[in-house]
């Protein structure tokens, strides 16, 4: 590892990873998978985007 990476890695704490299991009706799970697209990737990015949209809408409601 280059020395600059060593310096950076000591100053930034690693973010622990977690995993969740979502249970629901098959049509809803299939719909979520379709919304995520057909690419091979984790569902994290689409989930994060949906949470950001939801939080933004909630913030607008209380303002």
Structure description:
It is a single chain. The protein has 63 residues and is an all-alpha fold. It has helices at residues 3-11, 26-36, 44-62. The protein has a domain at 26-60. The chain has three helices and no strands. The protein is extended. The model has no long low-confidence stretch (mean pLDDT 79).
Please outline the helices and strands.
Blueprint: H1 3-11, H2 26-36, H3 44-62
N to C succession of SSEs: HHH
**Helix coverage percent:** 55-70%
Low-confidence stretches: none
Share of residues in strands: under 5%
**Shape, per Cα inertia axes:** extended
> How many DSSP E strands?
0
Q: How big is the Rg?
A: 18 Å
Mean pLDDT: 79
Major sheet summary line: none
Number of helices: 3
* N-end to C-end Cα span: 48 Å
Query: What structural category arises from helix and sheet content?
Result: mainly alpha
What's the short story on this structure?
This protein has 63 residues and is an all-alpha fold. The chain has 3 helices and no strands.
Features:
63 residues, mainly alpha
